[in-house]
Amino acid sequence: VMSALIRPLVEPRLPDWVEPLWFMTKEQALEMAPEAEIGWFDLNDKEPMIEIAKAATNLKWLNSIYAGLDFMPLDLLQERGVTVTNGVGINAITIAEYVVMLMLAHAKGYREVVRAQERHDWLLDSPGKRELSGERVLLVGLGAIGGLIKTRLEAFDMTVVPVRRSGGEGNLRPGEWREKLGEFDWVILAVPSTDETKGMIGASELAAMRPNAVLVNIARGDVVEQDALVEALQAKKIEAALLDVTDPEPLPEDHPLWDLENAQVTMHLSGRAQTKMFQRSADRFVENLERWHKGEPVAPQMD
Ligand code: NDP
Questions:
Q1: Which residues contact 240 (CB under 8 A, 6 or more apart)?
Q2: Which of the following is catalytic: 164, 220, 280, 284?
């Protein structure tokens, strides 16, 4: 059972043993779900996907275009022995480019420049005084996305210190980065939202950051304690926060983050380069179908 969104990309390449059912709406998906052995249930809205996954009682393999499946009933799927593959890496390039854009836009005061153009105002000086070159970055998460962020920022002559759950040469471990927070100009979050990472940046971490530090979050909103962040931004304890993700999403219309001059909020857009993302996901899925049929492990599987 698959979303009709990916039909043109997948259908011509489906092997004979697959009997595809395509859905357009949540209602159709719910109706088809109990028949599904393999499910690609992606919709723009995540809530219905939870319902659909629960209704898919014969499911053996769930595939998703998303990298973060923290919203899915993963415990239930695991209990039922369902294999889960996700979209890790599928939009990593576009997210890494977005991070560079957010950082440059902040460093060069680009938001002010756009406003000046709208006012037809010929600014005599650049509102942005920062250079990325020479600045130090703490990069929390060195996976598919973090790895690409690192190489791009190093091309700007930044020093990037990564944090990985598994540590490794040149990387900090989860227990090692907090005491070093004061050494960095930028803190970038590129971790999944897990019990270990939820709220990993709270009041004490924000207090330990430099006054010129900028927090960049493209991971998940709940990795940051958002109320503590608002307070730190209001009190100018850090220079700015560049947030592609918030908690909750969409950010409520009256939320203070919208109006803070030192907060840049983008609408979970960093990974939305749909064409390439869908193509990559479809390619990976078709390759996985072959493996699945031969009884080989499909990849990448969520642990
Ligand atoms: P990966 O699984 O490839 O990488 C995750 C990285 O986080 C790994 O390096 C992992 O360490 C590290 N990590 C995990 N737990 C911890 C911890 N407690 N402390 C420090 N590091 C930790 O994922 P991706 O790079 O593809 O994606 C990361 C997250 O970004 C996704 O889970 C998703 O939530 C978010 N995302 C956001 C998008 C957006 O549009 N804004 C789009 C896509 C994803 P190790 O290498 O040792 O395993």
A1: 106, 214, 215, 233, 262, 263, 264
A2: 220
Tens-place pLDDT, residues 206-257: 999 999 999 999 999 999 999 999 999 999 999 999 999 999 999 999 999 9
Query: Measured in angstroms, how far is the CA atom of residue 285 from the centroid of ligand 1?
Result: 21
Complex-level ipTM beyond the 0.85 threshold: yes
Strand partners, 145: none
Q: How far is the CA of 198 from the centre of ligand 1 (A)?
A: 12
Residues 6+ apart with CB under 8 A from 22: 1, 2, 3, 4, 7
Tokens 């209001």 sit at which residue?
234
DSSP state of 166: T
d(CA 41, CA 77): 14
Structure tokens at 176: 């090692």
Dig out the tokens for 33 from the structure.
């779900």
Closest to 233 (Cα-Cα) out of 255, 200, 266: 255
Closest by CA to 260, choosing from 224, 225, 229, is: 229
